[in-house]
Amino acid sequence: MTESLFEVPGEGGDRGAVDFAGPGASAPLAVRMRPATLDEVVGQQHLLGPGSPLRRLVEGAGAASVLLYGPPGTGKTTLASLISQATGRRFEALSALSAGVKEVRAVIDLARRRLLNNEQTVLFIDEVHRFSKTQQDALLAAVENRIVLLVGATTENPSFSVVSPLLSRSLVLQLRSLSDDDIRAVLDRALTDPRGLGGRYTIADDAVDHIVRIGGGDARRALTALEAAAEATGDGSEVTLELVEASVDRAAVRYDRDGDQHYDVISAFIKSIRGSDVDAALHYLARMITAGEDPRFIARRLVVHASEDIGMADPTALQTATAAAQAVQLIGMPEAKLALAQATIHLATAPKSGAVVAAIGAAMADVSAGKAGLVPPHLRDGHYAGAERLGNAKGYRYPHDDPDGVLAQQYPPDDLVGVDYYVPTDHGVEREIGPRVEKLRRIVRGRR
């Protein structure tokens, strides 16, 4: 993508230098409509206020390296192009898809020579999250010593994809998805601006609405849809809803399986199930399936959730989730989506309880705190030679010898006698389990 956006100028012989001069008429609409000034930028006002680090950088006054983090089509490359126009700066661009350590070091060497003439270099790296650790480490000294002013663009959360030393030396600025009104403004400008469609087309309101939905906050996607529909009309025709629908199969789902969207969507999925919102849970499930998420990952999360947030309030939830995971393995997609949907519906509509998590958490906390006394002698293994001389298993009472199948006997170490870990709720099956647990504790602890 970067190679089609950045044109190498013929002057000066600065290998890798780029020029953001206006693209030709044959360039895609999204490229032709890239803002040429800061005033044309739509959205991101939270980062472009007076005196903000990003505005200072765009206006040529900032000195900090930045990582521009946000969804596709929100203006990361646009802002980089504006920074390239800042007074007194030379601009170099690399794509993490094609550049290696050699190219990075070549740009840094070039920037070091320019500093001798008081020329600062802005190094723009598109898809910076795709740089390996070695490639990112190669940038550290140059960024720290301001040999280059780094502008990195990434669709992934830098906390997951950028090495800590580089992260600490840069400002992380998060760009937001464009609002529906922002996308409408982008479309209106593209329809009338000479760089765009130049007023040659009209568009129906419902067609605009559909393109806005298709865009999903991504200006590039919306402009691509508009261009495709306009090309299908013939000169001077109206862009209708039918033409838009015919030109664009469906809105792509914004979901990066390796980035923060991956974590955000699965988090929303689990929280929707926990909150018993079956419809929201199904939405996020559909979003993951449509985007090609590994169904085994979804199934694993359902299995964990069945115990984590439902537990004994509905013991069959774990069975359903486990069965869905097995179906994924045995059947595969796309048919396994039905099993995943069934498990999602079961878990979302089941009564909820966090008692299992609380119980094991409390027990492990005691163990970590050193409360792990000796196993009572009557519970120790008595099957090996010499066990009897040690007193192992002496006095053990076999519960099945009691008519009720339960009798008074010490099971925990001395320090933990009388400690309750499992506290059933009054939700679902636990409403019945609670009184039974209390009765069992009274009997086992000799308090009939």
Count of helical regions: 20
Distance between the termini: 76 Å
What is the CATH-assigned architecture of the largest domain? 3-Layer(aba) Sandwich
Q: Looking across the biggest beta sheet, what order are the strands in?
A: 2-3-4-1-5
Write the H/E string, N to C.
Answer: HHHEHEHEHHEHHEHEHHEHHHHHHHH
Overall tally of domains = 4
CATH class of the largest domain: Alpha Beta
| Rg (C-alpha, Å) | 31 Å
Which overall shape is indicated by the principal axes computed on the Cα atoms?
A: elongated
Q: How would you state the average pLDDT, rounded?
A: 82
Main sheet summary: 5 strands, parallel
**Count of β-strands:** 7
CATH fold label of the largest domain: Rossmann fold
Low-confidence stretches: 1-21
Query: By CATH's scheme, which homologous superfamily of the largest domain applies?
Result: P-loop containing nucleotide triphosphate hydrolases
Provide the β-strand percentage band.
5-15%
Helix content: 40-55%
> Structural class of the secondary elements?
alpha/beta
What is the secondary structure topology, with strand pairs?
Blueprint: H1 2-5, H2 29-32, H3 53-58, E1 65-69, H4 76-84, E2 89-95, H5 101-115, E3 120-126, H6 133-137, H7 140-144, E4 148-154, H8 158-161, H9 164-168, E5 170-174, H10 180-192, E6 202-203, H11 205-215, H12 219-233, E7 238-239, H13 241-247, H14 260-274, H15 278-290, H16 295-310, H17 316-331, H18 336-349, H19 355-368, H20 430-444
Parallel strand pairs: 1-4, 1-5, 2-3, 3-4, 6-7
Helix pairs in contact: 10-11, 10-12, 11-12, 11-13, 12-13, 14-15, 15-18, 16-17, 16-18, 17-18
